Amino acid sequence: MRLAKEVLQGNIKATARLIRDVEDELPSAIEELKALYPYTGRSYIIGITGSPGSGKSTLIDMLIDVFRKRGKTIGVIAIDPSSPFSGGAILGDRIRMQRHATDGGVFIRSLATRGWRGGLSRATANIINIMDAMGKDIILIETVGAGQVEVDIINFTHTTMVMLVPGMGDWVQTLKAGILEIADIFVINKADKKGADELKAELEAMLQMSAYSPQAWKPKIFLTEAVNNKGIDELVEGIYQHKEFLIATGGHDTHLKERARLELIEVLKSSLMDHVFQIVNKNNYLEKLIDDLVNKRTDPYSAASDIIKKLAQEGKL
Amino acid sequence: MSSERKIRILVAKPGLDGHDRGVKIVARAYRDAGFEVIYTGLHQTPEQIVNAALQEDVDLIGLSCLSGAHAYLFPRVVELLKENKAEDIIVIVGGIIPKEDIPKLKKMGIKEIFLPGSSLSEIINWTRANVKPRHA
Amino acid sequence: MFSGMGSAEDTNKRWHLLLKEGETGLSTAFDFPTLMGYDTDSPRARGECGRCGVAIDTLRDFEILTDRIPFDKITTSMTINPPASILWAMYLAAAEKAGISWDKIGGTIQNDMLKEFIAQKTLMLPLESSIRLISDTIEFGTKYVPKWNTISISGYHIREAGSTAIQELAFTLADGIEYVQDVIERKKLDVDSFAPRLSFFFNSHLDFFEEVAKFRAARRMWAKIMRDRFKAKDPRSWWMRFHTQTAGCSLVAQQPYNNVIRTAIEALAAVLGGTQSLHTNSLDETLALPSEFAATTALRTQQIIADEIGVTNTIDPLAGSYFVESLTNQMEEKAWEYINKIDDMGGMPAAIEQGFPQMEIANAAYHYQQQIDKGEKVVIGVNKYSTGEQVYPPLLQIPEELEEEQIARTNEVKRIRDNRQVIQTLSDLRTASKTNKNLMPYVIEAVKEYATEQEICDTWRDVFGEYRESAIHL
Predict the structure, then answer these.
(1) ipTM score here?
(2) Chains that touch C (3 or more CB pairs under 8 A)
(3) How far apart are CA A108 and CA A140, in angstroms?
(4) Using the beta-carbon criterion (under 8 Å), do A92 and C472 form an inter-chain contact?
(5) DSSP per-residue string spanning B6-35
(6) Among candidates B69, A14, B118, which has minimal Cα distance to C369?
(7) What is the pLDDT of residues B11-27, one digit of tens each?
(8) In the β-sheet with C277-279, what is the strand arrangement from edge to edge?
(9) C120 → closest Cβ in B18, B67, B73
């Protein structure tokens, strides 16, 4: 419980270490997370996604500025993909935010996806909780913009921002990836480029066509030039507007509930599977089943059913 | 399902030297060898580097300096790590470092110096042999 | 010979030595704080003073640097980029003080920011304002300092960052295209009025025939670009005048005396490729700043090529060789592909914003290193014929007190200068920077009042913003 105590005091080294333990899935981390859980649920979580080159890191760099001036403390989780070949990763999002490295109110952590299927992964949810418990007012999550990861973000974030850039050809891509459905706020960055107004018009037309119930939040669009520090204040206002909307409509509470539900299910799934695998891996039971499958003596549904029956019979469920 | 502990490395360019060909190649090589590499970009102060290292909980810091300013910058990083009670983070360096400066650097805590002509496999192999996850 | 070390006095001494040995062109290396627009007392400059070149904070340092240098008899090249206009202003002020009029002085300022964004990374201001300052200097030189090369469009650093020969060729020419374009559009100057003064700066690397072909392709392509793309009418606008430096990245720390041979062959390639001027590296430069012995040997290398072996008696002596001609054609073709691609992206600034040249270079650099590690590229002394024994040539050390002395000197200058005038000239500069005016006269005024380099740069940082590196291109 030592780490948890230090995290609650805002200790950077302890926080960094616990995050690492969580990433590496150490059993000892679970006890720490348990101790921290009562202190979570206070941070405001903002997700930022968009294709590479849209300027996410630059925008976050500017947002940190504005939020810090308002006296808020910030946690940043910057996610980059691991190499599918080597398992390694280059985590370079910090570069754009490094001027905040010596600001004690800002904690930036780079994360590699480590090939987790299922998107944003359990680790990120836990890391959010850690930064939450550490006392960060706002947590910014930057993701890679490759699709599945982003759709998973909305389970954890209060406000989700999708970044687009005129003329970078990601328009059709993002449509396909379903990213546009998850956006609470659209940011058209590099708005000084040709095509910015056209992109805004296209987006607005698309939003018109979508079915939004009158009580629902209608996504807002902001134009920014992050590199030139333009449009940032308006964007921050927009975020605050969304936050107020959530609080007023009970969306804030719904979010907490959904988050709790998801966290529970994720942990349950993984605990159950660990438990099951522990048992079926004994005596080559699993291997025999797989052999049966290959030789078509059974099918996956029947095999799974058999496993559950076996576990129940043996009182191990 | 647990995975093996990944080694996290921070590579950095302290000072005003902008020659980043080498450091970028090393970062890539580390990535291809399965490490997680945080690259903090150019023109970093020792304070920025150490703070990043602490937040990222890295096992290794690699510094590159080709301008001759290593005499101040490298020891300053080591000093800051000490101040933050993080001397268990290993520091290695590369760049234009005269042979005469090497014993001094090693004495103050720089674990290894990679001079011009070092191969990538040398660096990777050394790292594999000498760097373990910090809290293992 | 590219030189500069520590204090202005020491550099001045080295310069007089080189002049005595027969040098006709001086070449200045500055330290990192100076290169980046910081004074020696800036916290960013801690530990950097004088380490890789001379420290210049004010005109006072510059006057010491150029003490008794015959401005009208030699040419001076200054390797300086973001604050190039400031150092040039100092040179102009120093020459004026020595009684030499500006139409008599010759030299070069490197002043090529595009390659900084691509390769060398001494960065200060954003792209657009960097280009504006360059066009200001080109215009000023065209009008008032006719013998001065106000830009040295460089491929050297692009190559040093790890590019291929073709990338070096293509990106340099693409940079040149952008600069010419900007001067024409921004300053409304006729291309023939300034193009003859444009100069280039290339690398000379190890692959002998590829390098010769590269130089020849460069000259041919630039002529075509000037004549066909920019409609230059004066044949002197079509000429590509270039300086070459032998490849620093080809130097090897092991068995360093081998570097004399590498450098000699690279120098020869540049001469056979048609270079107008040459810098040869010193054999000990992988380890530290060159020693006197090494610097002299490098100079002798050039002198032997120039005076003993007869290659300078014929123009383009390898012309007509089947191999050289077909290589030249190939390089030209591949370089045009790159240039067209960059044009399609919207020009070099747009390509830089998208990270295109940076990515190409990073990939080439990684590939090259892997080839060396695997032994596919031979490096004698490293992966072939390496011996356990190592010879360490004598090294040059910078005295520790240099930084303090320099700071003290600058403080003294600040004490005795007319600070009201400094404030006034900086204010005038700030106001002018927000307009389209040519800023050179304002810089010269500030420099003459002994405003420091950083005071001027900070003014610009304030007006234009500071450039920050975008996402990495690894």
Answers:
(1) 0.92
(2) A, B
(3) 9
(4) yes
(5) PPEEEEE-BSS----HHHHHHHHHHHHTT-
(6) B118
(7) 999 999 888 999 999 99
(8) C152-154, C199-204, C241-246, C277-279
(9) B18
CA distance B33 to chain C (A): 13
Residues of B in Cβ contact (< 8 Å) with A95: 39-41
CA atoms within 13 A of residue C328's CA, in its CB half-sphere: 19
> pLDDT tens digits for B107-118?
999 999 998 778
Please tell me the CATH code under which domain B8-130 is placed.
Answer: 3.40.50.280
Task: Identify the pLDDT of residue C52.
Answer: 79
Asked if the Cβ–Cβ distance from B34 to A110 is below 8 Å, we say no
Interface test with C, best of A61, A62, A86, A96 (most C CBs within 10 A): A96
Instruction: Mark yes or no for CB contact C474/A58 under 8 Å.
Output: no
Q: Is residue C474 less than 8 Å (CB to CB) from chain A?
A: yes
Residue A269: per-residue pLDDT: 84
User: Average pLDDT of B15-42?
Assistant: 94
Angstrom distance (rounded) from CA A191 to CA C192: 37
CA–CA distance, C263 with C268 (Å, rounded to integer)? 8
Q: Which chain B residue is nearest to residue A275, measuring alpha carbons?
A: B1
- The residues spanned by each domain of chain B are 8-130
For residue B65, give the chain C residue with the closest CA: C48
| Single-letter code of the amino acid located at A120 | L
Chain B positions touching C38 (Cβ under 8 A) are 16
Which residue ranges form the domains of chain C, and what is each CATH number?
Answer: 2-374 (3.20.20.240), 402-464 (no CATH)
Give the Cα-Cα-Cα angle C323, C324, C330 (nearest 5 degrees): 90
Q: Identify whether the C-beta of residue C69 lies closer than 8 Å to the C-beta of residue C13.
A: no
State the alpha helices, DSSP H only, in A162-284.
170-177, 179-182, 196-209, 232-248, 251-280
A24: contact with B, CB 8 A cutoff = yes
Q: What gap in Å lies between CA C470 and CA C351, rounded to an integer?
A: 13
CA distance B26 to chain C (A): 9
Helix axes C208-224, C165-187, angle to 10 degrees: 20
Query: Which chain A residues are Cβ-neighbours of B88 within 8 angstroms?
Result: none
For C392-445, how does the pLDDT look when each residue is reduced to its tens digit (9 = 90+)? 444 556 677 889 999 999 999 999 999 999 999 999 999 999 999 999 999 999
Cα separation of C83 and B40, whole Å? 25
User: In this complex, do C471 and A53 lie within 8 Å of one another by their Cβ atoms?
Assistant: yes
Name residues 376-395 of chain C within 8 A of B (Cβ): 379, 382-383, 392, 395
Query: Does the CA dihedral A201-A206-A210-A216 come out positive or negative?
Result: negative
Burial label for A198, CB within 10 Å (0-12, 13-18, 19+), is exposed
CB B60 within 8 A of CB B38: no
